[in-house]
Amino acid sequence: MNATDAAETARLRKIATEGVRAMIALTGDDPDRAGLEDTPRRVIDALIDMTDRPGDPAALLARVFGEGTGSGQMITVGPIPFDSVCEHHLLPFTGRAWVAYIPAGQDVVGLSKLPRLVDHFARRLQVQERLTEQIADAIATHLSPVGVGVKVTSTHSCMAVRGVRKPGAQMTTTALRGVLLTEPAARAEFLDAAR
Ligand SMILES: Nc1nc2c(ncn2[C@@H]2O[C@H](COP(=O)(O)OP(=O)(O)OP(=O)(O)O)[C@@H](O)[C@H]2O)c(=O)[nH]1
Ligand SMILES: [Zn+2]
């Protein structure tokens, strides 16, 4: 972080602290009471922590292993647990993702890179449909595979603990590319693996 960034961060943290104090006051509580004194800092740090966007898709998917490892099979990883933040309410949504691809040639990526890719797109302000598309698009762009499948199921705390209050209701989203979109058998294989 350079000096300009540090000054801007300090400025925004000051404003955000006032904002969180105002939100506490809106709940009818006293932001100056001992138990709440340090809460604005904790809230800001928690939000930054939950949106740290680890990794970089191009770098994550850059190292491939060849020598006959791929050869046309579907590779599926899941369920991959993830935490994200609903961009409408800044409340968490948490769930599981399945990520599959069929390499175009012999090259495959390391197993761990797919969960890392999920975290990269999950740990930011999100909606689930965009999360699902971004994971699929990153694999399509960086690996140029024959097919890609991404399925995400999650529960949104904004729908569980407030508003409509339906705890346990799950949202499922699926993004398919290439043969997983066009070939019913490939699609069925993925959806069977992602249960
Ligand atoms: N499609 C989609 N909707 C989401 C997601 N996360 C939260 N939402 C919805 O975003 C919507 C925001 O609707 P608004 O009417 O603007 O906000 P609201 O008054 O808080 O809505 P309620 O939750 O119905 O009380 C709600 O219906 C949420 O359930 C998501 O990942 N995808
Ligand atoms: Zn929400």
UniProtKB/TrEMBL annotation:
Keywords carried by this UniProt record: GTP-binding, Hydrolase, Metal-binding, Nucleotide-binding, One-carbon metabolism, Zinc
Name of a matching Pfam family: GTP_cyclohydroI
Keyword Nucleotide-binding in annotation: yes
SUPFAM superfamilies noted in UniProt: Tetrahydrobiopterin biosynthesis enzymes-like (SSF55620)
Pathway: Cofactor biosynthesis; 7,8-dihydroneopterin triphosphate biosynthesis; 7,8-dihydroneopterin triphosphate from GTP: step 1/1
Listed NCBIfam families: PRK09347.1-2 (NF006825), PRK09347.1-3 (NF006826)
Name recorded for this polypeptide: GTP cyclohydrolase 1
